[in-house]
Amino acid sequence: MTSYEAAGVDIEAGERAVALMKDKVARSRRPEVVDDASGFAGLFDASALLRFQRPLLATSTDGVGTKVMLAQQYGKHDTIGIDLVGMVLDDLVVCGAEPLFMTDYIACGKVVPERVAEIVGGIAEGCRLAGAALVGGETAEHPGAMGPDEYDLAGAGTGVVEASAMLGPSRVRAGDVVLGLASSGVHSNGYSLVRHVLREAGLSLDADLPELDRPLGAELLEPTRIYSLDCLALAREVEVHAYAHITGGGVEANLSRSLPGDLDALLDRSSWTPPAVFEVLAGHGGIGRRDMDRTFNLGVGMAAVVAPSAADPAVRFLAERGLPAWVLGEVVPGSGEARYR
């Protein structure tokens, strides 16, 4: 007699994973979350939006790409969920939206309850750091399609912004100052190139390199910094005109998206020193500057465009919150491009 379990799907393991993650998910709860006894949907009390005159809902979805492969190889699963939150919710804050809630989806070859709970625990922690609630998710077992130790994850988030307070290119003016907000490392972009470098250079994730103060794998799996609460607080404190989340494409490509068509951002490469992990990747991989610029954040995880008078107060304010920031460049007449001097 055949069965679902004989086909490779363990229903009891899935139920145990849900039980293990419940306490972790609860830590991300917001007061607007409403319990759904069936568990089929996540509920959020929309009456919270009544405090807005014209609320605009913002939504974003993303994954963490092939960084999950390094997490699997290194056996570290408790922070990859933070990466997912950073990729999804930090996109929302670019327009000034407050993240409200998020859902996740995990596909795996075999449900290992403890591993799934670690992954979801990271997602819940990321949501907590972003001020959002993790209101639901799904874990799917795909035997035959994925190996027993393989998994992938994706998520979607929703936020809200007052229409009159929405940030973006229309607010940017000539003379504005561009601030760089420090990344925590490689974040979650460029890992196909990272894995190529590791493979071609014969580098182990356990390697202790002189440029780094911890094993290479630990450095590469440092979770993505969550900027949401810092960026929202900064916009309340000083005159912020735009943000740019620095993901795939690097600083120039992503910052260009937050500029109007008649202005450029001139950036000063000497204003900061990229973290050592980027030197490691460039050196061992023989990667030229142009490819490094187009692939990685190089230490700039978020850029803020602020009024000239707000630059120094903004840097001080972020420093008090533990987020290093600096003057990265300035906005000048142009054609809608961010570029280095």
Describe, in plain words, how this protein is organized in 3D.
With about 350 residues, the chain is an alpha+beta fold. The chain folds into 2 domains: about 10-35 and about 55-160, PurM-like, N-terminal domain (60s Ribosomal Protein L30, Chain: A, 2-Layer Sandwich), CATH 3.30.1330.10; about 170-340, PurM-like C-terminal domain (Phosphoribosyl-aminoimidazole Synthetase, Chain A, domain 2, Alpha-Beta Complex), CATH 3.90.650. The chain is about 35% helix and about 25% strand. The protein is built from 11 helices and 12 strands. It has helices spanning about 10-25, 65-75, 80-90, 115-130, 190-200, 215-220, 230-235, 250-255, 275-285, 290-295, 310-320; strands at about 35, 45, 55-65, 100-110, 135-140, 150-160, 175-180, 240-245, 265, 300-305, 325-335, 340. It has a 6-stranded mixed beta sheet with strand order 8-10-7-11-9-12. The protein has a 4-stranded mixed beta sheet with strand order 3-6-4-5, covered by helices on one side. Strands 1-2 form a two-stranded antiparallel ribbon. Helix 8 (about 250-255) packs across helix 10 (about 290-295). The radius of gyration is 21 Å and the shape is globular. The mean pLDDT is about 95.
Quick summary:
The chain is α+β, with helices and mostly antiparallel strands and 341 residues long. Helix content is 34%, strand content 24%.
The rough form would be described as globular
Q: Helix share of residues?
A: 25-40%
Note the beta-strand portion.
Answer: 15-25%
Low-confidence regions: none
- Number of individual domains: 2
What name does CATH use for the topology of the largest domain?
A: Phosphoribosyl-aminoimidazole Synthetase, Chain A, domain 2
What would you report as the Rg, rounded to the nearest angstrom? 21 Å
- Please give the alpha-carbon distance between the first and last residues: 71 Å
CATH superfamily of the largest domain: PurM-like C-terminal domain
Q: Briefly note the structural class of the backbone.
A: alpha+beta
Order of helices and strands: HEEEHHEHEEEHHHEHEHHEHEE
Count of strand segments: 12
CATH architecture of the largest domain: Alpha-Beta Complex
Name the strands of the widest sheet in spatial order: 8-10-7-11-9-12
CATH class identity of the largest domain: Alpha Beta
Question: Biggest β-sheet, characterized?
Answer: 6 strands, mixed
Total helical elements: 11
* Chain-averaged pLDDT: 93
